[in-house]
Amino acid sequence: MDREEQLFLHRLHDLSDACFQRGIPVYTDFLNLHEQTVFLSALPEFSHVRCYLDGGYETAERKIVCFLPVYGGFEEGPDREQLPIVPVRISSSAGKFTVPSTHRDYLGAVLNLGIERGKIGDIIVGDGFAYCLCTENMSDFLMEELKSVRRNPVACTRASFADLEENQSFTVITGSIASLRMDALLALLMKCSRSRASECLAEERVFLNGKLCVSQTAVPKTGDILSVRGVGKYIFDGVLTSTKKGRQMVQLKKYD
After folding, report:
1. How far apart are CA 124 and CA 147, in angstroms?
2. pLDDT in tens, 178-224
3. pLDDT at 75 (0 to 100)
4. Closest of 134, 156, 137 to residue 145, by C-alpha
5. What kind and span of H or E run contains 193?
6. CB within 8 A of 24, min separation 6: which ones?
7. Which of 60, 107, 162, 240 is 20 to 30 A (C-alpha) from 29?
8. What is the DSSP letter of 118?
9. Which domains are assigned to the chain?
10. DSSP label at 73?
């Protein structure tokens, strides 16, 4: 564990200790996949409190850690509506003249306001709009100050968590692989050789259900979330058919 990871864990311990000593819920900012992996690897160290990860919707990639007291009415876990996460809808007001914007465009516009990356969770992009998850203490500033994305004038309003699930869009990917193991699946998704896919695993760019995956032989299950840094995020839909030669036709949905 390097010094940066040690400092990160030290901050988590400070928050969990505050939760334990004061008997109140305490939350982190949004964590990326690597930070979540570091936290989960040290989970036994936080046995004095209850710990939950949540990003505002079921398949969120960036998540906050919720530290809750063991007693005092917090035994059932956090209610999402009570979390310090606010979904903000960013809508273009340019009508038919709206210039298509990507995830990078929305994220860049938000960060250009001076907002720290940890204050922003996932961004779900639609046609002429996007949903941006942010921490509660940053939501009013974001809604008041964000005026444009790319060349589009935008208006920001508070949304509901239900809106996030309803407005996700996917691209369906199907293909044939020799075996149902991670290097073969990555080779399909990245359109590369299995040796290059293995390098991607060794470079610690692959996460399965939010946990770092470095195993070439890991076998995903139907419904698993696969994230590859620099490539995309996918839901594994499982095996559709198998050929007589033993190849398997698989299907995944890529988050747009």
Report:
1. 18
2. 999 999 999 999 999 999 999 999 999 999 988 899 999 999 999 99
3. 58
4. 156
5. none
6. 18, 69
7. 162
8. G
9. 3-78 (3.30.1370.160), 85-166 (3.30.70.330), 170-255 (3.10.290.10)
10. S
C-beta separation of 149 from 111 below 8 A: no
Residue with tokens 């038919």: 96
Two structure tokens written together for 217: 């032989």
Q: How far apart are CA 147 and CA 203, in angstroms?
A: 38
Number of helices and strands in the chain (H, E):
7, 14
Tokens 């073969």 -> residue = 184
- List all residues 6 or more positions away from 9 whose beta carbon is below 8 Å from its beta carbon: 1, 38, 39, 42, 45
Residues 6+ apart with CB under 8 A from 97: none
CB-based contacts of 220-228 (< 8 A; 24+ apart in sequence): 220/180, 220/182, 220/185, 225/59, 225/61, 226/185, 226/189, 226/252, 227/33, 227/61, 228/186, 228/189, 228/190, 228/200
- Given a contact cutoff of 8 angstroms between Cβ atoms, the answer to whether 68 and 50 are in contact is yes
